[in-house]
Amino acid sequence: MKSGNVSCGILAALMLLVLSACGSATAESAEQARQPETGAAPVAMQMTAAARQSFPDVSEDAWYADAVRFVTERGLMDPVPNGNFEPDAETAREIIAESLWRANGRKAASAEAAFSDMPAANKAAVDWAVEAGVVGGMGNGRFGSGLPVSRQDFAVMLWRAAAKPSASGSVSFGDAASIADYAKEAVVWAEEQGVINGIGGNFEPRSSVTRAQVAAILQRYLTKQATAVSSSGDGPVVYFTSDISSAGLLAVYEKLGWDPGGKVAVKVSTGEPPASNYLRAELIGDLVRRLNGTIVECNTAYGGSRSSSAMHRQVAADHGFTAIADFDLMDEDGEVEWPVTGGKRLDRIIVGSHAENYSDWLILSHYKGHQMAGFGGAVKNVGIGASSASGKVLVHTAGTKTSGSIWYSNQDAWLEALAEMVYGFVDHVGRAHIVYINVMNRLSVDCDCNGHPAEPDIHDIGILASADPVALDQACYDLVSKAEGNASLMNRIERQHGLHTLEHAEEIGLGSRMYTLVNID
């Protein structure tokens, strides 16, 4: 998965929609007149997002009950005005467009679709769906608002939303000959992926898709997409869990299979008081203790409450870190220089002298926005966080000085230096001795170095872990880029050209922006 790749870009948005339970859809009896969309959703996930919503016309033991909860709790489908779900009702074209638009992060279209019959409530969704090529009009300037969607047309819409992935083989349904030519590849793909199942051995391509079927198909489609593993196996693995808890953090760490053999440094940000969004001690404590780790930091280069050792130690205590582990200000007794080879901006990095006391490193980062870098994740947690005060100035000024202001006029140059600092750090420590975890909660546009950050616009997403910091940060960016309410954070990242850090990091060999996302829930 790579940012900007149309065929993969939707997957990040889909991951956001499977952050809570998606249990199995249970088949009903064979005597039922329509046996719609049986088959289990492929992954069971923990409920984290919203309270369960119930409907008078959806019994708890209905085969579609879990799917209805899935789509309504994520805002993909709404109840009808009378408060029911109406599972057997036909689904109109604009409702399908609305659901797919919401699944794709409610992105705004760059142009309006000119239809004479478009309900105002669905206009933004239809504009997006038309521009994205998910659906077209019916001719004569009409969209076909209110017209039901057939099962084969729904397959086509999903296939187009997934960027028309190639499909091999042929349809196995008994009525395959009745599937329209334009829909055959989409139906083959939907069957291969287990997204749309048959009804009594047939596909029933021209039957209208019911709201219950839409819910079940969307649940299956989104879960399949979000937990998909790259078919080519390209790129390092990034593990994901939606469980933002001490147990979830331990679980995603275990997937890394890391076996530190020496003294472990746990690099976190202690957070600027009074109200920053640093990772809380109660969240990380069990993992830090599990590693017998020492929490490490360096003093800041811009003032604030963490610019001197005494004040910084007080902040660490106030924020609960000294209660869970030993705390080490790595530059309290000076600094050391480590070389950078092949750098464009840096020939050395400057870290706290205590960094040489640790053989193994867990880079435990809070993913969020940042005023200068656009975003902060694993790369920034090392590149700035592990640098001494003078090392921070060196990075921020793209290798031009070690004292004075951290502000620098060449944005791309300092972002390149940020990537090169991490490259030098990893080269010195050794790749096998470092792992990375990003926690995606309290997703403010502001960094934890801001004591008065803006309130988050994005719901909490989860915890991701990898042995590759570039893949990890790219995966987090991809998730944010498709999240509802992401405008402020995305604008900041784009304004600061934040992705250039990862572009340069990949170019110099620090890591890969291609990755395989594995959901462990």
Give a quick precis of the structure:
This protein has 521 residues and is of the alpha/beta class. It is 33% helix and 11% strand. The protein has 16 helices and 14 strands.
Structural description of this entry:
The chain is α/β, with parallel strands linked by helices and 521 residues long. The chain is 33% helix and 11% strand. The protein has helices spanning 6-16, 65-73, 93-103, 123-131, 151-161, 181-192, 211-226, 246-255, 281-290, 309-318, 378-383, 389-396, 411-429, 469-481, 487-495, 499-508; strands at 24-25, 39-40, 237-241, 264-267, 294-297, 327-329, 335-339, 348-352, 360-366, 368-370, 374-376, 434-440, 462-466, 516-519. The strands form four sheets. The chain has an eight-stranded mixed beta sheet with strand order 6-5-4-9-12-13-3-14, sandwiched between helices. Strand 5 (294-297), helix 10 (309-318) and strand 6 form a beta-alpha-beta unit. Helix 2 (65-73) packs across helix 7 and helix 8 crosses helix 9. Residues 1-52 and 227-233 have low confidence and may be disordered.
Number of strands: 14
- As laid out across the biggest beta sheet, the strand order is 6-5-4-9-12-13-3-14
Beta content comes to 5-15%
Class computed from helices, strands and strand pairing: alpha/beta
Overall mean pLDDT score? 87
The H-and-E topology, N to C, reads as HEEHHHHHHEHEHEHEEEEEEHHHEEHHHE
What is the approximate shape? elongated
Number of helices: 16
N-C termini distance: 20 Å
Cα radius of gyration in angstroms: 25 Å
